[in-house]
Design a protein that fits this description.
By secondary structure, this protein is mainly alpha-helical. Helix content is 72%, strand content 0%.
Amino acid sequence: MIRLFALLVLLLPGILAVYGIKLMRDMAFGILQSPFPYLWLQFIAGLLFLLVGLGFVAGFILYRDRKRNNVQARFKIK
């Protein structure tokens, strides 16, 4: 049950990052999505979604690897 919850916790930010990439790609091709009135606003939202999603997944992986002592010396907590 806990592993399923952990999978969902990682899956949701991953989906958010993928949606951010889609928004940025649509802006590059000039396709305006419905909640955004301007293309530049759509790009900023997509970039924000991408950074938040990837940052969460990367932070989770770094935290897990620090706990298992699988990181380089510069990433270890002093």
